[in-house]
Amino acid sequence: MTKAVERKVMKVLAGETVFPPPVWLMRQAGRYLPEYRATRATAKGFLDLCYTPDLAVEVTLQPIRRFGFDAAILFSDILVIPDALDRNVRFVEGKGPLMDPITPDGIAALDGSGMHAHLAPVYETVRRLRAELPAETTLLGFCGAPWTVATYMIAGHGTPDQAPARLFAMQHPAAFETLLGLLAEMSADYLIAQIDAGADAVQIFDSWAGVLSERDFARFSIGPVKRMVDRIRAERPGVPVIGFAKGAGAQLEGYRAATGIECVGLDWTVPAKLGRQIQAGGAVQGNLDPLRMIAGGRALDEGVDEVLETYGDGPLIFNLGHGITPQADPENVTRLMERIRAAAKQ
Ligand code: CP3
């Protein structure tokens, strides 16, 4: 009999302390890597890259080969859900994502019934990844949280403070609630399909949680995420969920209990005292400032040491506090990996 492989990320998600901690980086497949840019240049557009399993598998594996991360994250985007809803999603060079802004009437007309057919290539990518990844590498599926996806659907593009979505929620509360409910159900279906294709765990990105008031955070962020987690719990018990509510600050304190997630993603602004309190309840993930991956040198080393000192004696998945940026130097990722892995010897 072969010895069961140990996936370190899964151990931490179960609440165990592993030191040195397992590592992966949000947005680890992307433009900071020359090999990503080369593969990207062979695809017609960004969505073609997401929907072509040969290419999506390749770019998912690139950072695993180069750095030996403990988890691979499926290469796709949170905006494939609006794309599956026919919102005319496109990625324009230098402009970020664009789509047709939705109206209350448009929300009433949304039809998610074609989602699984539309996203079948993504599920195929997950299947191939599980077959090709090293046995010890955790495979993460992901999607956007309903609130964050809704912000793009309403504005039609990224904005600094999501004013269009916040105003829409005030002016059209019923339509807004319908939208969040639809996105929660579709996103739960989507994550369950990724789990069935081979994802070991899933992460829900609520990148825009930080612009919400306390009451709206409870209604628009926590509520729909809980609805998704409840479905995953009921339909695929035992699959851990990581929740990343960026910028939620003090509201993160009750986030694990309120949503039912296993692991709380911390951004780099979370005070150590709060982060430690959250970690007393289970796994945390984070939280190096991504700019340290540009700065390198001492700024990088000090940042790595601080995360290890603050969270290393509890269940920690080492990560950045948000995605790695295109300006990051891949050499700094190598340096980060060496420093974390050498920490064991102290
Ligand atoms: O390596 C990985 O992490 C997997 C792939 C991944 C992408 N996007 C690929 C991508 C993941 C997990 C995401 C999540 C995502 N997408 C989020 C949540 C995380 C976060 O960063 O807050 C959000 C808000 C999006 C929406 C999105 N997609 C934006 C705003 C942009 C444009 C800005 C940017 O970073 O370019 C994208 C495009 C995108 N998604 C790229 C990649 C590699 C770059 C596009 C390209 O290569 O042309």
Describe it for me?
The chain is of the alpha/beta class. Helix content is 50%, strand content 12%. It has 17 helices and 9 strands. The strands form 2 sheets. Strands 1-4-5-6-7-8-9 form a 7-stranded parallel β-sheet. A two-stranded antiparallel sheet has the order 2-3. Strand 6, helix 13 and strand 7 form a beta-alpha-beta unit. Helix 9 crosses helix 11, helix 11 runs parallel beside helix 12 and helix 16 packs parallel to helix 17. The protein binds coproporphyrinogen III. Coproporphyrinogen III binds next to strand 3.
Short description:
The chain is an alpha/beta fold and 346 residues long. 50% of the residues lie in helices and 12% in strands.
List keywords for this structure.
seven-stranded parallel β-sheet; 9 strands; binds coproporphyrinogen III
Biggest beta-sheet profile: 7 strands, parallel
- Give the strand order of the largest sheet, numbering strands 1, 2, ... along the chain: 1-4-5-6-7-8-9
Shape: globular
Task: Count all strands and give the number.
Answer: 9
Number of helices: 17
Strand portion, in percent? 5-15%
Q: Rounded to an integer, what's the Rg over CA atoms?
A: 19 Å
Class based on secondary structure composition and strand pairing: alpha/beta
Overall residue-averaged pLDDT value: 97
Bound molecules: coproporphyrinogen III
Taking pLDDT < 50 over at least 5 consecutive residues as the criterion, the unreliable ranges are: none
The sequence of SSEs as H and E is HHHHEHEEHHHEHHHEHEHEHEHHEH
Instruction: State the separation between the terminal residues, measured CA to CA.
Output: 35 Å
Q: Helical proportion? A: 40-55%
